[in-house]
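queue> pop job 88
queue> type: inverse folding (structure -> sequence)
queue> payload:
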């Protein structure tokens, strides 16, 4: 059976569209900036600052006093531009490397009526933010309610998260600390939840805002829970690494949703800041009709394929003597043959993976109906309908498995599972219980403003990300509930378990939910969990049968007088991976663990089995308030 592929007329290819942004005048960089020897990236373009501020302006406070904590302001261009727009009550510059940046920051500190204050403290040290309050640098803030879980709209944090860590070679400060501190109201969240506007290298922005389910880890999952909104305001929109993981249909759907939102809430895009259109993989020079080209996003190595083609044409045109064949021409032909072979193999493999996912999508739709039978929104199928459903499931699974048998190990183990999960977490998917997509990126209100690498120094393009806290987070609601009942220890215990569970997202996000539950709950039957944790039932796979013997060990069975049986078997959560579980479901697992452990009078062994948890640190954080 041949799949009918959709066309994507609204996605322009850069092979057809030539843009002049890269050739626009480069911003002038002050000579002193080029002499800086520091492992950070700095915004050097005033125009970029102004364009970003224009986009942020509708949500920035201008009608009340505001304090700013500025983490690693560096050369101060972004800091001063933001300051002039907001006119804050005070602006604290946390810059430990003041000797390097003194010539840039002194004019801000010594200007008439300056509201800037420099402190040489390093933001990476845990006590830095507590000292701001304890030593009187933010006197108005300490008059607010301590430990409040409401938004503090009189304080804002600017943070440069581009510090290069030599050990990991990753240009991000530990943003996770800033996010986790929302949960216990520590760091700068002590007197209410604070908005953060941070700068990340675009190549590392998926540490906070992943654009593919394959990059969703611990920090991103936590952020989905504690943030009301996360926007990439500006960034290098030509960055395409994440696109190759998603597949064209998912990318098209995500882009269409943004276009729909912009119709009701339009935003201004300055000239030259338009997002770069999606670039498609090039079509082969010679098309084999028996192996049609499969449209897909471009991959980095495709550029080499194109370059070798062009180099070969140039070399052949310049060579007048064909015998003996010049070594360069011979090498180029050899290289192009190898790249063509690789390209053809990739084309077949990706096409097969998508066709297999087409069969899986049919399976998902049937299993979604069975899930509705289990939650009572659909009746148990009739005998005839059940028979047809069973036959259709068997046929689709057989077709899928035959196609998957043709995949190489890399595509079977990595590409295919990602394609399946990318489709499943979109709002339009039958396997996504939420009317909204899972990834924060897919909820974006607009495309980021495009940036040029020459607007930064060093010349590394960065993204500006706006993180707004969510006071109505389910975890903060739980905290308020436990606090009102004078049981803060229960919140601390559940939160510790929750964070321990989230750690598995860092190293084992592809692990199945079944594997996690067996690790956490030991001998407890897996088929019990869809009823024990209702939110988890949306990710469980029910089975249907006409054979009572087959269903003898199933749980929560639904039956009909015609002998149709629907229920959960022991492998009902084997197909659900951690990387597509919403943070709410992880919290519900943590709460169920705490309830079950207390019921069975079991010791807290979870921290050992999952690699340790920060019970003492969390108790300390709450105790100091």
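queue> result:
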């Amino acid at each position: 059976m041949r799949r009918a592929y959709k066309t994507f007329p609204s996605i322009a290819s850069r092979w057809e569209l030539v843009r002049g942004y890269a050739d626009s005048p480069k911003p002038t960089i002050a000579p002193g900036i080029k002499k800086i020897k520091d492992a950070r990236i700095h915004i050097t373009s005033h125009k970029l600052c102004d364009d970003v501020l224009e986009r942020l302006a509708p949500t920035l406070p201008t009608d009340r006093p505001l304090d700013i904590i500025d983490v690693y302001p560096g050369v101060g261009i972004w800091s001063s531009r933001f300051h002039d727009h907001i006119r804050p009550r005070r602006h604290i510059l946390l810059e430990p490397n003041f000797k390097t940046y003194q010539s840039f920051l002194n004019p801000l500190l010594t200007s008439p009526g300056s509201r800037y204050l420099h402190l040489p403290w390093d933001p990476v040290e845990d006590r830095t933010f507590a000292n701001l309050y304890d030593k009187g640098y933010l006197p108005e803030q300490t008059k607010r309610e301590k430990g409040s879980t409401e938004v503090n709209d009189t304080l804002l944090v600017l943070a440069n998260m581009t510090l290069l860590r030599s050990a990991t070679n990753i240009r991000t400060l530990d943003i996770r600390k800033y996010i986790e501190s929302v949960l216990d109201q520590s760091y700068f969240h002590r007197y209410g939840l604070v908005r953060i506007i941070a700068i990340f290298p675009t190549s590392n922005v998926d540490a906070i805002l992943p654009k593919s389910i394959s990059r969703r880890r611990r920090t991103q999952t936590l952020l989905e829970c504690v943030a009301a909104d996360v926007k990439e305001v500006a960034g290098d929109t030509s960055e395409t690494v994440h696109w190759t993981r998603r597949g064209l249909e998912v990318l098209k759907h995500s882009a269409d949703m943004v276009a729909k939102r912009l119709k009701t809430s339009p935003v201004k895009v300055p000239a030259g800041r338009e997002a770069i259109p999606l670039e498609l993989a090039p079509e082969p020079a010679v098309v084999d009709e028996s192996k049609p080209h499969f449209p897909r996003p471009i991959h980095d190595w495709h550029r080499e394929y194109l370059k070798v083609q062009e180099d070969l044409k140039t070399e052949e045109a310049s060579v007048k003597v064909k015998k003996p064949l010049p070594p360069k021409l011979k090498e180029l032909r050899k290289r192009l043959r190898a790249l063509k072979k690789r390209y053809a193999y990739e084309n077949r493999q990706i096409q097969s993976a998508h066709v297999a996912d087409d069969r899986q999508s049919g399976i998902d739709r049937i299993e979604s109906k069975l899930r509705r039978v289990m939650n009572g929104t659909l009746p148990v199928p009739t005998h005839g309908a059940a028979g047809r459903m069973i036959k259709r499931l068997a046929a689709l699974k057989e077709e899928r498995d035959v196609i998957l048998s043709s995949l190489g190990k890399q595509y079977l183990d990595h590409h295919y599972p990602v394609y399946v999960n990318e489709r499943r977490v979109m709002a339009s998917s039958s396997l996504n219980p939420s009317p909204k997509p899972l990834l924060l990126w897919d909820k974006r209100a607009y495309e980021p403003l495009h940036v040029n690498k020459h607007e930064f120094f060093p010349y590394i393009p960065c993204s500006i990300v706006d993180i707004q806290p969510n006071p109505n987070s389910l975890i903060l609601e739980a905290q308020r509930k436990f606090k009102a009942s004078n049981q803060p220890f229960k919140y601390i215990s559940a939160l510790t378990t929750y964070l321990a569970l989230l750690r598995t997202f860092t190293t084992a996000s592809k692990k199945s939910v079944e594997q996690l539950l067996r690790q956490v709950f030991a001998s407890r039957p897996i088929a019990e969990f869809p009823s024990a944790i209702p939110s988890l039932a949306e990710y469980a796979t029910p089975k249907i049968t006409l054979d009572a013997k087959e269903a003898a060990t199933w749980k929560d069975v639904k039956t009909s007088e015609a002998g149709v049986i629907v229920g959960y078997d022991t492998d009902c959560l084997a197909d659900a991976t951690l990387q597509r579980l919403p943070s709410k479901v992880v919290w519900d697992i943590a709460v169920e663990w705490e309830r079950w452990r207390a019921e069975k009078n079991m010791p807290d062994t979870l921290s050992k089995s999952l690699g340790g948890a920060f019970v003492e640190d969390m108790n300390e954080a709450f105790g100091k308030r």
